[in-house]
Backbone:
């Protein structure tokens, strides 16, 4: 899980544009296949799940040899590979939205060849998960989570972020995501708490964000920065109600902790598969990524690791009990919203992106 934690620490980006969120006509990768496909899968249980659900079945179906790369490869290293024309990774898994933006801005990625995808598979994937240069490998969410000992079934429970901010009606110790990375923070939750509608979140007013945060700040015992902190806070009962990755809360609940997730107003986000420009195996890399987006493959991945599929058709193949633990379940999507990465890298009149402005404000505000 440690790799997932680091991956989710969205770092500040100075980019001024983003890859198109709409499905577009892509150019075919010109590189020809030249041997075994090198796929970055990372280590731990997550990497093992990728190998079992994708790598081995892909080899069996296509006869193409895949070499799993379990090491973490920083964005700067990928950039160096491409610029030096010595690309040693053909496919990378789990690139966050800001990471993808940085790579796209430097023209370091191949276009995804959507022409090789089946229409029914593409139709099952939301448009925001289909970028010109990357395809969502899975989804996860930021949710409100409460201790059921403090908020038991049958008693009043906070139902939305306005309720989270309502410390009189729902007294208890709070914890929220830190804003120290700029591109990710308690921004959307603050605006929702101030009365914004889910479908009218963006563009967000930064002054409004911090005016809302002013109201909840005295009741926050911890501004967390990673998943390990989340688990410690919930396991030790440090907070009665908090914001959390859905996966962390589910893990504790499965272990018997008195934890329950509120799926209402959940913030959806996702990671990408991408191909570094100049991959000598780009054609096979395209085939591999297409393989991972199929409904049956994503349903198989869930059996090994509880990350929500980006292809909603996978739910036809996932047992209902297991499916209801995943943030992209049809019943949850209706009350959730996708993050809008484009807003974060839009530049204001002061020459700073919204992410940069948030980070500057946060650093002054938190002190």
Residues:
């Amino acid at each position: 899980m440690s790799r997932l934690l680091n991956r989710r620490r969205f770092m500040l980006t100075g980019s001024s544009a983003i890859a198109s969120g709409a499905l577009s006509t892509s150019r075919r990768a010109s590189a020809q296949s030249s041997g075994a496909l090198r796929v970055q899968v990372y280590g731990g249980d997550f990497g093992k799940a990728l190998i079992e659900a994708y790598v081995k079945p892909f080899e069996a179906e296509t006869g193409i040899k895949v070499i799993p790369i379990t090491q973490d490869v920083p964005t700067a290293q990928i950039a160096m590979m491409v610029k030096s024309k010595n690309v040693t990774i053909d496919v990378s898994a789990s690139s966050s939205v800001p990471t993808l933006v940085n790579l796209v801005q430097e023209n370091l990625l191949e276009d995804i060849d959507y022409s090789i995808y089946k229409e029914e598979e593409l139709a099952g994937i939301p448009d925001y998960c289909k970028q010109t240069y990357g395809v969502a490998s899975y989804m996860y969410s930021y949710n409100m989570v409460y201790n059921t000992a403090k908020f038991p079934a049958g008693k009043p429970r906070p139902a939305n972020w306005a309720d989270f901010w309502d410390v009189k009606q729902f007294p208890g110790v709070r914890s929220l995501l830190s804003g120290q990375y700029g591109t990710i923070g308690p921004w959307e939750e603050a605006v929702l708490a101030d009365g914004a509608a889910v479908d009218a979140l963006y563009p967000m007013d930064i002054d409004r964000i911090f005016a809302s945060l002013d109201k909840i700040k005295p009741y926050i015992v911890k501004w967390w920065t990673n998943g390990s902190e989340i688990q410690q806070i919930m396991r030790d009962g440090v907070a009665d109600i908090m914001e959390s990755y859905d996966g962390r809360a589910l893990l504790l609940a499965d272990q018997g902790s008195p934890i329950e997730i509120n799926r209402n107003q959940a913030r959806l986000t996702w990671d990408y598969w991408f191909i570094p420009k100049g991959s000598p195996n780009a054609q096979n890399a395209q085939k591999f990524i297409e393989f991972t987006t199929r409904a049956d493959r994503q349903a198989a991945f869930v059996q090994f690791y509880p990350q929500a599929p980006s292809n909603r058709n996978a739910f036809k193949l996932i047992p209902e009990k297991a499916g209801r633990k995943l943030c992209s379940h049809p019943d949850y999507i209706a009350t959730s919203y996708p993050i809008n990465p484009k807003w974060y890298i839009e530049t204001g009149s002061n020459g700073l992106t919204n992410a940069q402005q948030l980070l500057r404000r946060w650093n002054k505000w938190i002190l």
